[in-house]
Amino acid sequence: MQDNSSKLIKLNLKTPFKLKQGGELHEIEVCYETYGTLNESANNAILICHPLTMDAHVSDNGDTNVKPGWWNFLIGPNKPINTHNFFVIGMNVLGGCRGTTGPTSINPKTGTAYRTSFPEVSIEDMVDVQKLAIEQLGVKKLKAVLGGSLGGMQVLEWSVRYPEWVEQSIAIATGCQLSSQGLAFDVVGRACVLNDPKWENGMYDNSGISSITGLALARMIGHITYISKNMMDRKFGRKLQDGRRGEGFNTAFMIESFLHYNSEKFLKRFDPNTYLYLSKAMDTYDMTEGFQNLGHSLSRALSSFLIVSFSSDWLFPPTDSIQLATTLSNQGKSVTYANIETDLGHDAFLIESDETEAMVQLVSNFLKS
Q1: Domains in the chain and their CATH numbers?
Q2: Is 346 considered catalytic here?
Q3: Sequence-distant (≥ 6) Cβ neighbours of residue 310 within 8 angstroms
Q4: CA-based nearest residue to 225, from 45, 70, 34, 51
Q5: pTM of the entire structure?
Q6: Is-catalytic flag, 369?
Q7: Of residues 313, 320, 343, 347, which has the active-site annotation?
Q8: Is 26 an annotated catalytic residue?
Q9: 295-330 pLDDT, tens per residue?
């Protein structure tokens, strides 16, 4: 089977799906894309777990008529994750707004969108839904689970929640929990949405492009955490857009124009309520919850690990990855750790560049091991 168009799969739920925080769902659809062919043993599948604002479309798989995927430089025919050899699966997470059941979906009980009546979701819930979906796709075991940031948290949860399913775990620019500084930025981001008068307790007009400018502000704040100071200095400095000074309180610096442009694009493709749900899921994830310590939690894992960090990432700094790698090593797990020197910041794993070629090569070599 060769397919790189988005599809929906309705999970065969025999009983309501119970969520970690006590809610339940009676129907769940998952938006997914597949690339390559599942082998007869059904064990050559690689699951790609996306970061907060991405989706199931990870690659164009060599089709120039298809929009490039967000990890196009990593996944496709004869690329590091070679779809001639692997059956690659991209899935939109539970609570998302890109096809999988979430706040924008229709509640079958009411016939209207869930909006903020949607139950709270967790990383654990996302992984449980992914597990049900890949089983329905016929997968027996995962060759690898791979993701960065929020996706990396899903990778870590897969490794300990379903250890017998995962042969290799590749966690990039992530950690076992978000730092207090990371939490603080997310708190402010959500406050921007919650305090927007047009948000109306989640019952805003949902006819098209979002009118919730608070979401644009949240995106601006988030973007500042995704790129490093050195990159901003190098790319923007204190240069003015078109060489003109701004009027009133607008400064017209290039960095201001960049933030406005990207936040406006974000409003066209992302849902404000979804941002609230997914950012909270990221904030509340803690691998040590219910365990004596991180080592006790990670001791459940059976896979080998590739842990990658970036020197200029201050959302998930290298110390987070070092903690993971050291703890895994102390537990006797097979772990490879690499810190890549780059000034691209947290978003480095999403950018094709000479600096991140090292990450690409690490992933390629690891999958061959």
Answers
A1: 7-178+287-368 (3.40.50.1820), 182-281 (1.10.1740.110)
A2: yes
A3: 173, 318, 339, 340, 342, 344, 345, 346, 348, 349
A4: 51
A5: 0.95
A6: no
A7: 313
A8: no
A9: 999 999 999 999 999 999 999 999 999 999 999 999
